[in-house]
Amino acid sequence: MNPWARLAVAGLALASLVACGPPAPHARDKADSQPQSQAPGRARDETVFDDLIQTEDRARAVEGVTQDAKAATDKAIAASEGGGSGDQ
């Protein structure tokens, strides 16, 4: 193998290892100082995706209501199957 090719492969391997390493200490400090009232992963500045993010937040807020309605429906289906006339 050509010495230059070995050097290039070694350089690419080293670069990939460095890229997969932990973030710099100052980057972690900034992440820890993020206010807790803000949703994780949300940017502080208004973005063009703000409407979509608000829609997702509203959907998460009503997920419990949807799950309760599903549980009630499942219970009603189970009750109707259990009390059937047995014509199957």
C-alpha end-to-end distance: 74 Å
Shape: elongated
Low-confidence stretches at least 5 residues in length (pLDDT < 50)? Answer: none
The chain-level structural class is mainly alpha
- The SSE order reads HHHH
Give the total of beta strands. 0
Secondary structure: helix percent: 55-70%
Report the total helices: 4
Give the C-alpha Rg: 27 Å
Kindly report the average pLDDT value. 77
Portion of residues in beta strands equals: under 5%
Features:
88 residues; mainly alpha; 4 helices; elongated
Question: What does this protein structure show overall?
Answer:
The protein has 88 residues and is an all-alpha fold. Helices cover 65% and strands 0% of the residues. It is built from four helices and no strands. It has helices at residues 3-19, 25-32, 50-61, 63-82. The longest helix has 20 residues, at 63-82. The chain is elongated, with a radius of gyration of 27 Å.
